[in-house]
Amino acid sequence: MFVLYGIAAATTALLLTAVLAALLRAPALRLGLVDRRQRQRRVPLSGGAAVVLATCLVAGAGDWTGFAPLGEGVGVLLAAGGGVAALGLVADAWRLKTRFLVVGTAVAAAFVVPYGDTGVVAGVVAVGWVTCVALAFRALDHADGVAGTVGVVTAFGVGACAAAEVMDGLAVLLSVLAAALTGFLMHNWPPARVALGGCGALFAGFLLAAAAVTARAGHDAVTGAGVLLALTAIAAVDALLVLLARRTAGRPLLRRAPDHLAHRLRRLGLTPQGVTVLIGVAAFAGVLVGTLVHLGWLSAQAVLWVAGGVPVVVLGLWRVPVYGRPGEGAVRARARSRRQPVSSVQPPRRSVESPLRAPRRLSSSQVSGPLRVRNG
């Protein structure tokens, strides 16, 4: 019965998210809740609200009917995630400053970290880690399909870890979240018609990070840190890459720029679909390592491959130029003009003097002295 309900809940969440994302698209456009992609395309941020509503409704219905009780801790986690989603929605509508997002997410994380299993010191560190992952996941919504793909893969991995710890309510919540993100991807696959925005990205990142901490609570702290890094390796790569690039270039850390992971991969010549697939494969590799280490099917040393691969990827992609040089825009404009067909390039107009027009008189300063004398 529980398995059948899980399948039914996942299917419902997928279809409900797909329908809500389509229905909320027009209101988001009218209200101006949009994100600009490639400086021209306006993408409404209705996908985040659809993911949040579908996840909360389906998971809440299972808990209310008794088919899949979430449990007290998971219910608090879902409520805290809803609060973070509301904060992200405010940021989407009124461009809330980042420090308010940090404080609000940290307060929500403080209510869901299991201090009894982690201890006070490790619990405080976990609060900071959950906050950073939620904000880093929000930054992943910089390109079509990236945040949704990474979220689906991560949700399956963390859900497997929760199921291994016999946390059935947490596993159901993560399966519903994965299904909701899949329904969102039906509209977000490149070229995207909707985006997550701060509402959906903060909600998904918060649930995934907090669920991973809850599943790993009570295990070895060092191995747990490696497992958590492997589960969220893509978010870590993108955040570290942006911080390193903006710091070395002397740019503001919180100002938007085309310097994220997907932007650099596009600079290397990949298509938008290819970027999404490549990032999804990389996320799957990290999540697979973290899940197998948590299950005990791989040794703890396996996470060192992921931990060592993160700085290698960051340093490698950091060398990809994304900011350009001063005057590069004018140079590209001239290059584009040279590539235009001959028929579209008009020759410069020359002034043709009419034979009926009287010749222009020379001023006195242009006439030499002897000439003035000869002409009287």
Automatic annotation (TrEMBL):
Spans annotated as Disordered = 333-376
Ordered alphabetically, the record's keywords are: Cell membrane, Membrane, Transferase, Transmembrane, Transmembrane helix
Looking at the UniProt record for this protein, which Gene Ontology cellular component terms does it annotate, in alphabetical order?
A: plasma membrane
Q: InterPro entries under this entry?
A: Glycosyl_transferase_4
Taking the first listed entry, what is the main subcellular location of this protein, grouped into a coarse class? membrane
Q: Transmembrane residues, as ranges?
A: 6-24, 45-67, 73-91, 98-115, 121-139, 146-164, 170-187, 194-215, 221-245, 274-297, 303-322
Q: How does it sit in the membrane?
A: Multi-pass membrane protein
Organism of provenance: Streptomyces aurantiogriseus
The entry lists its GO molecular-function terms as: phosphotransferase activity, for other substituted phosphate groups
One Pfam family linked to the record: Glycos_transf_4
Where do Low complexity bias regions lie? 354-365
GO BP terms: cell wall macromolecule biosynthetic process; cell wall organization; lipopolysaccharide biosynthetic process
Q: What name goes with this protein?
A: Glycosyltransferase
Location in or out of the cell: Cell membrane
What does the record give as the organism's lineage?
Bacteria, Bacillati, Actinomycetota, Actinomycetes, Kitasatosporales
